[in-house]
Design brief:
The complex is a heterodimer of chains A (76) and B (221). Chain A has 76 residues and is an alpha+beta fold. Chain A has 2 helices and 3 strands. Chain A has a 3-stranded antiparallel sheet, covered by helices on one side. The longest helix of chain A is centred in the N-terminal third of the chain and has 12 residues. Chain B has 221 residues and is an alpha/beta fold. In chain B, 25% of the residues lie in helices and 25% in strands. In chain B, the strands form 2 sheets. A 9-stranded mixed sheet of chain B has the order 2-1-3-4-11-10-9-6-7, with helices on both faces. A two-stranded antiparallel sheet of chain B has the order 5-8. In chain B, a hairpin with a 5-residue loop joins β10 and β11. The chains are: A alpha+beta (76), B alpha/beta (221). Chains A and B meet through α1 and α2 of A and loops of B.
């Protein structure tokens, strides 16, 4: 089984990299981009039977920093 | 004073820190590899050096904070042992939960490498006792992820309790409230982004960093 963990910055946490991407898109002539937030996608190959709770624990202990980041788990 | 420097893969200021500690304490510090699970007996100070441990993978300091030696460092810190984290060491301390907040990419996105002016906000800690409160000193920074971030209530608490020990006196990296260095609630753990170990001798361009270590020697014996 696989899990996809999407890590994003919490609302209100300044994202200078997202801001730079937004400016670069504007520089390329793409109008209408009103905001960019950059995050991470982490794909895990897991032994069958790994629970969502296990992946939650991985997120809390390492994959995301709860001070600044949120995470979302999709099991497949 | 008996000191130890923890060495992570990718640390690059471990020797600078060791030279400073040796020079100022008169004794070479123990160098502790990150895979060690125990610290030497009788340590007064544990120092986490600057660098790019684990290539800053995942987040700066994230991997190092989970390395075997950090369990012993966290236990020692909770038992009141003095812990100093410089630059990447500060990032490791926040990731390990010994200090609040997080250090994010510099607001200007640039790597900042130059001497900066710092204001000493609190001279009542073991780390800052040889400075005067309100004094401005010059210490070099060299970092990409020094933009200190925490929620407003944490920032208010840090300010209210005098836990902001060093503050940038000029714009450097977008750090919340210009925070350059903070201590934990008990005052025995300091994290700071600038590198005092790089400025301990006038032959190297200045000695404003030296007094941080001299204060520790005075406080810790």
């Amino acid at each position: 089984m696989k899990a996809r963990v999407t890590v994003t910055l919490k609302t209100g946490v300044l994202d200078p990299q997202g801001r730079a991407i937004e400016h670069a898109l504007a520089g390329l002539g793409f109008g209408g981009v009103e905001g960019v937030r950059q995050g991470k996608l982490i794909e895990l190959d897991l032994a069958d039977g790994t629970s969502t709770a296990d992946v939650e624990a991985m997120c809390r202990q390492l994959l995301a920093n709860p001070v600044i980041e949120n995470y979302r788990i999709e099991l497949a | 004073m008996k000191a130890a420097v923890v060495v992570f893969p990718g640390s690059n200021c471990d020797r600078d820190l060791a030279v400073a500690l040796h020079d100022i304490t008169g004794t070479a510090p123990a160098m502790i590899w990150h895979r060690d699970t125990d610290l030497p007996d009788g340590l007064d100070l544990i120092a986490l050096p600057g660098g790019f441990s684990y290539g800053d993978y995942l987040r700066s300091g994230a991997m190092s904070a989970r390395s075997p030696v950090m369990r012993a460092v966290v236990d020692a810190a909770r038992a009141g042992r003095a812990v100093l984290g410089v630059c990447n060491g500060f990032q490791v301390l926040t990731e390990a939960g010994l200090l609040p907040g997080a250090l994010m990419r510099n607001a200007g996105l640039d790597f900042v490498c130059r001497d900066v002016a710092l204001r000493v906000e609190n001279s009542q800690t073991a780390f800052s006792a040889r400075y005067d409160a309100g004094e401005t000193i010059r210490i070099p920074v060299a970092h990409h992820d020094g933009n200190y971030t925490a929620d407003d209530s944490t920032l208010d608490r840090l300010d209210g309790d005098g836990r902001v020990v060093f503050r940038y006196a000029e714009p450097v990296n977008g750090s919340a409230r210009d925070i350059a260095g903070i201590v934990n609630d008990a005052g025995n753990v300091l994290g700071l982004m600038p590198h005092p170990e790089r400025l301990i001798d006038d032959a190297l361009g200045g000695s404003d960093g030296r007094r941080l270590f001299e204060g520790l020697v005075a406080a810790l014996g």
